[in-house]
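Exercise 7. Given the encoded structure of a 378-residue chain, write a plausible sequence.
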């Protein structure tokens, strides 16, 4: 990157072509089942699971650190990666891409005088093709080719030798399809099902005109939102009909699908609206939340940190402050710190580092890049 800047080459090609759209489509009312971003997120449990994870990571404070010390002047890339939107929107888009597709792509935009990235634009994963040409990884976007220095690529679960990660849309299509089909069936059943709302019984035979007149008269008096009492005579009787959710097992089916989605995304059931048993206590929920941070949020956040770190000057690291998500267990954590300090196997500096606090009486952190830029200005 430094050589690129010194040779005066263009900083970016991001301004020279139009970014492909996300391609978000809804499920058609008829025809085969489509499993894509739009149809998957139409399932309430899937939408909530993705929202919980992406928002939890996107709202974490993001800083640059050097040797464990927070750099006072946060790089522009971490303050606002995409100048056209907020940092939260950009990070949430990256995490959502990872959760849905197992891959997140961002086109590197402007660079500073030393060739380090100062901005990037998140790309829709379906619009990016990854291949290997002459031993190098090449990204095809909108008819243009980019090398690995121009695209930030974050991968999720990856098989050995694979260039891309695996996401639920690729390997969990059966479970997502079952949930999508269940939601579609339920909505069409209640909105456009063939079962009538009720039956009018009449003694004797009616011709078509008489039956139509009776139905229209009953609907005019009691149809729609009218809830007035019905007065029937001449042997006419009305029996109301309706679907039983218990008989159709819709409630159990939805609960099963929601639990499967919670398993796919690694989200505790109580965070996406799955009813818990009476045995769930505050302590159980708290421990579930802590496990959620450690085993679901932390791994995804670490992938984003590693990718952003690759774009920063050597020695700097992008770091999310995870402490905010663990504050619910502050008392237990502080009690453990007290035991560690009194036993002598941890120091105050080590405890403060665990809490993402600056060391006491620590000398100010000087950024090498800032020194170089100041020298150039002089």
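Solution.
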């Amino acid at each position: 990157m430094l050589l690129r800047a010194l040779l005066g080459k263009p900083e970016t090609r991001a301004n020279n072509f139009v970014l492909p759209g996300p391609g978000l489509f809804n499920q058609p009312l008829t025809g085969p089942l489509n499993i894509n971003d739009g149809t998957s997120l139409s399932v309430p449990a899937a939408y909530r699971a993705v929202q919980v994870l992406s928002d939890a990571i996107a709202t974490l404070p993001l800083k640059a650190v050097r040797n464990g010390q927070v750099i006072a002047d946060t790089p522009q890339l971490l303050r606002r990666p995409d100048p056209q939107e907020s940092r939260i929107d950009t990070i949430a888009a990256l995490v959502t891409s990872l959760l849905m597709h197992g891959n997140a792509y961002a086109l590197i935009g402007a660079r500073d005088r030393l060739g380090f990235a100062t901005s990037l634009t998140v790309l829709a994963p379906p619009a990016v093709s990854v291949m290997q040409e002459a031993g190098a990884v090449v990204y095809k976007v909108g008819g243009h080719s980019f090398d690995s220095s121009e695209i930030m690529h974050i991968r999720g679960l990856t098989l050995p030798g694979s260039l891309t990660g695996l996401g639920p849309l690729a390997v969990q299509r059966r479970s997502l399809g079952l949930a999508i089909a269940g939601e579609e069936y339920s909505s069409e059943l209640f909105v456009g099902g063939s079962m009538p709302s009720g039956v009018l019984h009449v003694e004797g035979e009616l011709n078509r005109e008489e039956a139509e007149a009776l139905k229209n008269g009953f609907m005019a008096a009691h149809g729609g939102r009218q809830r007035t009492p019905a007065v029937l005579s001449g042997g006419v009787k009305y029996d109301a009909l309706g679907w039983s959710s218990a008989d159709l097992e819709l409630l159990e089916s939805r609960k099963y699908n929601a639990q499967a989605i919670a398993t796919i995304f690694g989200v505790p059931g109580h965070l996406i609206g799955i009813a818990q048993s009476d045995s769930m206590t505050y302590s159980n929920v708290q421990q579930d939340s802590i496990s959620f941070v450690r085993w679901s949020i932390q791994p995804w956040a670490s992938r984003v940190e590693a990718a952003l770190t690759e774009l920063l000057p050597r020695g700097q690291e992008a770091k999310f402050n995870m402490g905010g998500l663990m504050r619910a267990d502050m008392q237990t954590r502080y009690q453990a710190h007290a035991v560690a300090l009194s036993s002598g196997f941890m120091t105050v500096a080590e405890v403060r580092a665990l809490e993402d606090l600056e060391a006491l009486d620590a000398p100010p952190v000087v950024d090498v890049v800032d020194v170089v830029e100041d020298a150039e200005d002089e």
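Remark. The longest strand covers residues 103-108. Students should compare their own answers with the one above.
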